[in-house]
Specification:
Distance between the termini: 46 Å
Number of strands: 3
Order of helices and strands: HHHEHHEEH
Number of helices: 6
Largest sheet: 3 strands, antiparallel
Low-confidence stretches: none
Strand content: 5-15%
Strand order of the largest sheet: 1-3-2
Radius of gyration: 18 Å
Helix content: 55-70%
Length: about 140
Amino acid sequence: WHRNLAETSPEKYDPRVISRIMRGKSMSAADYIEVKHERAAWIKAVEKRIQWYDAILMPTTPIVAPTIRSLEESDDEYFPANMKILRNPTFINFLDGCALSIPCHKTNEAPVGLMIAGPALHDQKILECGYAIQQLLSEL
C-alpha cells in the first residue's frame, strides 16, 4: 500500500512518518519472511504465558506525553520522545492484540491513561475489564 504512494506522493505523508516507512524499503524478502515467522512464534509464546489472565494492565505511555508544541521544532527531541511514548502500545500491536486506554488522571492534571490489553480476538473481555475498571476509578 505505502510503497507506491510513498514514492510517488511523499508530500502526502508527515516527514517523520515517511522516514520510518522508507526504512522498510531496504528489507529483503527473505528478511521479511523471517520476521513474519519470528513474530508468529513470539505471539504464540506470549499468548501461552498470558492465557490465565483476564487482561494485561500497564500505563498507556510510560511517561506523561510532552506537548506537541515542544516536539514540533526538533527531530532530536521528537524521535526519542515518540519512541518512548509508543513503547507500550507497540508491544500490544506487535502481539496483534487488542487494547483500550481509559483516563486515570486527576482533574486539571496532564492526561494519562491506563491501558487494558489482551491477545487478538479478546475484544469483548478487554471491554468488560475496561468497563469494570472505569466504574471503580469513577468512584474514587
